[in-house]
Amino acid sequence: MATYVDIPVVENVTLDITKDAVVIDGVSKVFKKSRPLLPWRRKKDDEKNKKREVRAVDDVTITIKRREIVGILGANGSGKSTLIRILSTLLIPDTGKVTIFGYDVEKDERMVQRLINRVSVEASFFKKLSPLENLMYAARLYNMPGAEARTKIFEILKRLGIKPDRITAPLENMSRGMQQKVAIARAFLTSPIVLLLDEPTTGLDPRSKIDVQNFVLELRNVHDATILITTHDMEEAEALCDRVAIIDQGRIVALGAADELKREVAEIMGRDEPATMHEVFMHYTASHPITEEDIRRYGSWEKAFEALEAEREEED
Amino acid sequence: MSSIMHQGRAAYAFFERNLNLTKRYWGWEIVWLVYNIVNALSVTFIGASAQLVTGTKINTNFLILYLLIGTSVWSYLSVTFDGVTDIINMERWEGTIEHTFMAPISRFTHMIGSCLYAVVHGMLFTVVQLVVVGAFFHLDLSHANYLTTIFMLLVGSISFIGFGIMTAVLPLLYTEKGMQMSFIVRAIILLVSGVYYPVAVLPFWMRPLASISPATYVLDGLRFAILDNQPIWSPAIWSVTWPLIITGIVSIPLGIYIFRIAERYAKRTGKLKRNG
Fold it and tell me: Which of B20, B97, B269 sits opposite A133 (nearest CB)?
C-alpha cells in the first residue's frame, strides 16, 4: 500500500515513500570526441574517433531503497561521477532510465531537482563570497525565505564546527576541509530527500573526514535522507554504507552488503576469515573476476591477481 | 502562487549574488571603470580636435556629444553584455556552474535575475562615465532630454538582453574560447550600428545588418534625445522605439529557446562540467 508524506521544502507535493528512492535501469553513457568540421578531415579521423569513444557508464542497473546509504567504489575514471551527474540532472543518459521516487530525471527534471542535492569532490563556491553569502544564494534558489535561511545557516555551520567569525569572511581563506563542510551544509540546508555525495571526503584530514561521515549518518538517521556516496576510501564505504556497489569501466561488477562481499571473496580465495574491503575491491576490478580456476592455475589469489593485472595492462 | 514566489526569490538570488560579487571585486570594478573612461576620452578628444586637424569650422560641441553618445552606448552595451554572458563565464571560472544548473528553477528566472542586475550595473557604470567624461569638456547640454535618454537605454536594454542570452550560448558550448567569441559578437553589433558614425557611411552590404541591430536604434534614439531634445512621445523617438520593442519581443524568447537547446546539447555531451 502506498504511503504519502508531505515534503517540507517542496510545497504542494506529496511523495509515495513506499516507492524505491532511486531506480537506475539499464543506464549507459558514451562520450565521443567531437568530429572535425572539414569533411576530408572527418573521413580520416573516423577510425580514430571510434577508438576515442569513452563508455563512461555501461548498462548500469541498481535500485536504492528509502533511507538506504549505498556506496559506489571505483577507480578514477570508472564512471562514478558520470553516474552521479546523471542522477543530478546534469547529464542526459544515452539509454536507460533513472527515477527518483518515481520521477524521471529527464522528463520531470524540475521535480527531481527539488528532491535531490549533491556535494562534489571540489567544493564549488564563489570563493570571494563568504559562506553566508554562498549559502543564502543556495537557499533562495531552493525557495527558502531570507530570515529563515539566515538562522538555519548559522545553526548548521555552527553544528559543523565553523566559527561564527568565519561565516561572514571570504571562503577562499578557509581550508579545503572547512570548505567541504560548507558544501555539506549547503546540501543539508535544502533538506534533500536524496543526497548525492561525490567523493565528499577526498583530501580531508582524518578529523574532518569523521565529522563529515557523522553528519552523513545523521542526515539518514534523523532526517530520513537516502544517500548515494562515491568514494575511494574502503574503510569509509564499510563504515557508512548499507550496501556497496563496485564499478569498473562503467559497469557494476559487484553489489551487496560489505560483509556479504567480504565473505564471497574470502570463499573464492579459499580462506576462512573474511577478506578485507581492499581485497574485495581488487578482486572485482581485476581484468575479470578471479575464479577458483584462476587460483588453481596461478597457485594463489594474489598470484592470479598479479597475472591478470599484467594482462590488462598489456591490453590497455 | 508559491511557484511565482519561488521564481521571484530565485531571480533575486542572482541579483543579490552578483551585487555581492561586485562588492567583493570592487578593485576590478574601478580598473574597468577607469579603462572605459580612458577609452571614452580618447574617442571624444577626436571630436575636440577635429577643427584643428581639418582646418575647417566644425560644430565641435555637436561632434563631441555625437561621439560621447557612441562611447556611452559602447560602454553600456559592454557592461550589460558582460553581465548577461557572465551567466556562464563567471560560473565556469568559479566552478559553480553545475550547482546552479541543478537548482530547481526555470532558465527564464535564471536569465531575468542575472539580466536585471546587468542592466542596473550597466546604467550606473554609464552614468559615472558620462559625468566624468563630460567634466573634461564644456558641453552645451541645453538641447538634451534626460527623460528620453533614460527611456531609450531602458527600452534598448530589453533587446540587448535577448542578444546577450543568445551570445551566452557561446561560452556554454565552447568552453575554452566561448568568452572571446562573445566579445567578437559585441564588436560586430557596434560596428554595424554606427557607434561613432551614421550607418549611411557603411558599405551597402553592411546596411541591412544595421537595421536588425538594436544598437542602431538605441544610438539614433539617444542622439535624438541629447542633440535634438526630442521628447518620448515625439515621432522621431517612436520611429526608433517600435523596432526596439519588436526586437525585444522576438529576441528574448528566441534567446531563451536557443539557450535551452544549447543546454540540452551540453547535457548530452557533458559540456556542463565545471572545468570545461
Answer: B20
Strand intervals (E) in B175-258? none
Instruction: Specify if A17 maps to a domain.
Output: yes
Please check whether residue A64 lies inside any domain of the structure: yes
Residue A297 three-state SS: helix
Q: How many residues does chain B have?
A: 276
Q: What is the pLDDT of residue A50?
A: 60
Instruction: Mark the ranges of chain A whose per-residue pLDDT is less than 50.
Output: none
Cβ–Cβ below 8 Å for B272 and A110: no
The DSSP 8-state label assigned to residue B56 in this structure reads S
Instruction: Please return the burial class of A13, using the count of CB atoms within 10 Å of its CB with bins 0-12, 13-18 and 19+.
Output: middle
Using a CB–CB cutoff of 8 Å, tell me whether A154 touches chain B.
no
Of B190, B236, B240, B239, the residue nearest B215 (C-alpha): B190
pTM for the structure as a whole: 0.86
Q: Strand pairing of A95-100 and A103-104?
A: antiparallel
Question: CB-based contacts of A21: which residues, under 8 Å, 6+ apart?
Answer: A64, A65, A66, A67, A68, A100, A101, A193, A194, A226
Distance CA A83, CA A80 (A): 5
pLDDT exceeds cutoff 50 at B276: no
Phi and psi (nearest 5°) for A88?
Answer: -85, 5
- Closest-CA residue to A250 (of A95, A56, A76): A56
Gap between the Cα atoms of B203 and B187, Å rounded? 17
Closest-approach residue (CA) in chain A for B264: A92
Contact indicator for B84, B179 with CB cutoff of 8 Å: no
Residue A20 belongs to domain with CATH number: 3.40.50.300
How many domains is chain A built from?
A: 1
Listed as own residue / partner, the contacts of B228-236 with beta carbons closer than 8 Å and 24 or more positions apart are: B228/B143, B229/B143, B229/B144, B229/B145, B230/B145, B230/B148, B231/B145, B231/B147, B231/B148, B232/B147, B232/B148, B232/B151
Name the residue with cell 528553477. Answer: B105
Which one of A42-46, A287-291, B89-93, B246-250 scores highest in mean pLDDT?
A: B246-250
Chain A contact probe: residue of B14, B29, B102, B175 with most A CBs at under 10 A: B102
SS3 A10: strand
Closest CA to A269 of A298, A253, A299, A292: A292
Mean pLDDT within B10-37: 93
d(CA A276, CA A263): 9
